[in-house]
């Protein structure tokens, strides 16, 4: 049952909070007691818990384990990428898996975003050493039922399966992350693997984006699959997994008993049907009213679909969603028709959004402008080999142009497995740093969170210091502000409740504050809060002059993470100027020419729109004696290319 993880990742942008899971946990534990597993952790849930829900992902896992002690838990592990978007030192992955088992995890579905076997083996070894169940997965793309398939065909998948069996997998996962596995293809693929490996347990996962999910899973069972994924009816379909109730009924009609009854499944479905409206801002139904077979063209993974749309919305591109889906397909082909699952799918999505933002439609357009574009950092890293090596190699000449091969500012490609040469992470030293900053309450789990997402963990801790723990607040009040006269109940623990009523609030004072009055368990309480709407208004910014090469504009809307130069310094062409971020997509804006930095129009933390002037460079006033401290090129040596990633990432 994927309801607690992939279903809401696919339908609701991973936003379901622990409180809403724990409310239904006892009933789920009873009704789903015969399930192979409950998938409830890993994937994007670790990141989103910290970044958006402001919850500790480790506490989330342990609370679920306590409530449901008798059903195996399953998580999604991104091989050498753990639950992040990059390669980590090997000891981080091993320690992460060890702690996950200690916190209650059982089955680890280990995959790699490019099916790169070296990354897969690292994840498998880490799970095995931790004592977990290894479910190594082949990430499915293409169409094995197409007689013309020559890249991702049966021979390819059988060869990959053989490598995973040799690596010691306990279970084989078939991970169809976009819903491309047609019924005939499911029968062919599972049947071929079953024939070649008669004793290998096979677990099949798909998304129902095309509407073919139930049919595909039935064919997988008929061909010999031992376990299949589904989600509770009201959290199924479209970009999520096929309906558990529908599959249960269909299997019963074929004489296959699952040990579950549809009355219980319906009861769980009714609960989630009532909860789901609280997550309306993140609904996939904003853009999808039904499944669509166009997934066979664009191939966007189900878990990425809603996140990508929300990302587009945040960047002011929501009205261009059809163009973005088309650009996603084109970007995939430009990148070499790669396997697409986090983090490789993020590379394709970032490039697609980037292309739409910059009006690029064809590979010819991209190649013609490549040398003057500030590509998303994820795209640069992909071509460097930081995710591993794709099937069939990297496409040329795009790779050489993105990496500026043959120039003095070229990005160096990575040789071999990306994380193999990274120094071991110093957990003791990091813990000392965190304790110095946050006190002795820091746990080893906090250190792991910081190792995986240093910047996000810092933001999470800042939020905790300002607001405390907010996971007990009802979801509707967490996502939307209370209305005057509204009352809510917050249950801290059994027998400890707060009844909170919003009584009144003043107008904004001269300092930009509002005074807000509450009634808490009958006691009046007032607080002063900053009214951000009165101070964060959309300030009109000067736009870059497209006719002037030295007038450097923002390539996309987003937040300024850092400014890498100072006014009055000389910069060479391709020098780092500004780092922007928008919904996990980071872009380093570089100098289009050599010259003197005349004006800097932004600072760290500023919000900008596409085309806003960032830096003005005077080409005629270059002074080579006063160079910027920043190295030329897309990323500074030793600088982590993502706010969520450790340093020492990109080499020049």
Structural commentary:
- With 652 residues, the chain is of the alpha/beta class.
- Helix content is 37%, strand content 16%.
- The strands form four sheets. The protein has a seven-stranded parallel sheet with strand order 1-2-3-4-5-6-7.
- Helix 2 runs antiparallel to helix 11 (262-275), helix 8 (183-196) packs parallel to helix 9 (213-222) and helix 20 packs across helix 21 (454-467).
- Mean pLDDT is 89; it is low at 624-652.
From the structure above, extract its key features.
disordered C terminus; 652 residues; alpha/beta; 19 strands
Topology:
Layout: H1 3-11, H2 18-31, E1 38-42, H3 45-53, H4 57-67, E2 73-77, H5 90-102, E3 107-110, H6 117-130, E4 133-139, H7 154-166, E5 171-175, H8 183-196, E6 202-205, H9 213-222, E7 227-228, H10 244-253, H11 262-275, H12 295-298, H13 302-314, H14 321-334, H15 344-357, H16 363-369, H17 377-384, H18 398-402, H19 427-438, H20 444-452, H21 454-467, H22 475-479, E8 487-493, E9 496-505, E10 513-520, E11 523-530, H23 532-535, E12 551-553, E13 558-563, E14 570-571, E15 576-582, E16 585-590, E17 595-600, E18 607-608, E19 613-618
Parallel strand pairs: 1-2, 2-3, 3-4, 4-5, 5-6, 6-7
Antiparallel strand pairs: 8-9, 9-10, 10-11, 12-19, 13-15, 13-18, 14-17, 15-16, 17-19
Helix pairs in contact: 1-13, 2-4, 2-11, 5-6, 5-20, 7-8, 8-9, 14-15, 19-20, 20-21
> What is the count of β-strands?
19
Helix-strand category: alpha/beta
In terms of DSSP E residues, the strand content is: 15-25%
Report, as a whole number of angstroms, the end-to-end distance: 45 Å
* Overall average residue pLDDT: 89
Number of helices: 23
The dominant shape is globular
Radius of gyration: 25 Å
> Percentage of helical residues?
25-40%
Low-pLDDT runs of 5+ residues are 624-652
Q: What strand line-up does the widest sheet have? A: 1-2-3-4-5-6-7
Described by strand count, sense and barrel closure, the largest sheet is:
7 strands, parallel
């Amino acid at each position: 049952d994927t309801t607690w993880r992939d279903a809401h990742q696919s339908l609701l942008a991973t936003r379901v909070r622990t409180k809403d899971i724990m409310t239904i946990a006892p009933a789920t534990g009873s009704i789903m007691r015969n399930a192979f597993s409950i998938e409830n952790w890993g994937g994007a849930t670790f990141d989103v818990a910290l970044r958006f829900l402001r919850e500790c992902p480790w506490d989330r896992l342990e609370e679920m384990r306590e409530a449901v002690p008798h059903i195996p838990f399953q998580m999604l592990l991104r091989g050498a990428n753990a639950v992040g978007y990059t390669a980590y030192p090997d000891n981080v992955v091993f320690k992460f898996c060890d702690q996950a088992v200690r916190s209650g995890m059982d089955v680890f579905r280990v995959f790699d975003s490019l099916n790169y076997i070296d990354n897969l083996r690292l994840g498998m070894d880490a799970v095995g050493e931790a004592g977990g169940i290894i479910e190594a997965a082949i990430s499915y793309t293409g169409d094995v039922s197409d007689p013309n398939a020559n890249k991702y065909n049966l021979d390819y998948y059988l060869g990959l399966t053989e490598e995973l069996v040799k690596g010691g997998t306990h279970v084989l996962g078939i991970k169809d992350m976009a819903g491309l596995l047609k019924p005939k293809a499911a029968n062919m693929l599972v049947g071929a693997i079953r024939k070649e490996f008669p004793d290998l347990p096979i677990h099949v996962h798909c998304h129902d984006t095309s509407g073919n999910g139930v049919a595909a899973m039935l064919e997988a069972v008929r061909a010999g699959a031992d376990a299949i994924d589904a989600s509770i009816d009201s959290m199924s379909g479209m970009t999520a997994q096929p309906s558990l109730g529908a599959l249960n009924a269909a299997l019963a009609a074929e004489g296959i008993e699952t040990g579950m009854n549809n009355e219980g499944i319906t009861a769980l479905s009714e609960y989630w049907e009532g909860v789901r409206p609280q997550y309306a801002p993140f609904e996939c139904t904003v853009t999808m009213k039904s499944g669509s077979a166009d997934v066979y063209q664009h191939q966007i993974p189900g878990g990425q679909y809603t996140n990508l749309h929300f990302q587009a919305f945040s960047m002011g591109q929501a009205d261009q969603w059809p163009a973005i889906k088309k650009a996603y397909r084109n970007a995939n082909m430009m990148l070499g028709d790669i396997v697409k699952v986090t983090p490789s799918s993020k590379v394709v999505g970032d490039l697609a959004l980037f292309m739409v933002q910059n009006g690029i439609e064809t590979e010819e357009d991209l190649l013609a402008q490549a040398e003057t574009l500030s590509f998303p950092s994820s795209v640069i890293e992909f071509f460097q080999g930081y995710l591993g090596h794709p099937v069939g190699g990297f496409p040329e000449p795009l790779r050489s142009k993105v990496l500026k091969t043959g120039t003095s500012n070229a990005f160096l490609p990575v040789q071999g497995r990306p994380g193999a040469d990274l120094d071991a992470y110093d957990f003791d030293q990091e813990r000392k740093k965190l304790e110095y900053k946050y006190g002795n309450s820091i746990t080893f789990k906090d250190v792991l969170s910081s190792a995986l997402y240093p910047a996000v963990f810092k933001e999470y801790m800042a939020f905790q210091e300002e607001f405390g723990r907010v996971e007990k607040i009802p979801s509707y009040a967490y996502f939307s502000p209370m209305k005057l006269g509204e009352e809510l109940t917050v249950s801290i623990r059994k027998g400890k409740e707060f009844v909170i009523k919003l009584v009144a609030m003043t107008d904004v004072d001269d300092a930009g504050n509002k005074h807000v009055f509450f009634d808490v368990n009958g006691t009046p309480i007032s607080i002063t809060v900053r009214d951000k709407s009165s101070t964060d208004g959309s300030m009109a910014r000067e736009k870059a002059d497209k006719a002037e090469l030295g007038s450097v504009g923002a390539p996309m809307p987003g937040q300024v993470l850092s400014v890498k130069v100072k006014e009055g310094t000389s910069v060479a062409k391709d020098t780092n100027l500004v780092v922007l971020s928008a919904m996990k997509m980071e872009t380093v804006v570089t100098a289009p020419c050599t010259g003197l930095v005349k004006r800097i129009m932004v600072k760290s933390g500023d919000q900008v729109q596409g085309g806003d002037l960032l830096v003005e460079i005077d080409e005629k006033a270059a002074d080579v004696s006063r160079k910027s401290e920043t190295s030329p090129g897309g990323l500074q040596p030793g600088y982590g290319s993502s706010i969520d990633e450790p340093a020492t990432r990109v080499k020049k």
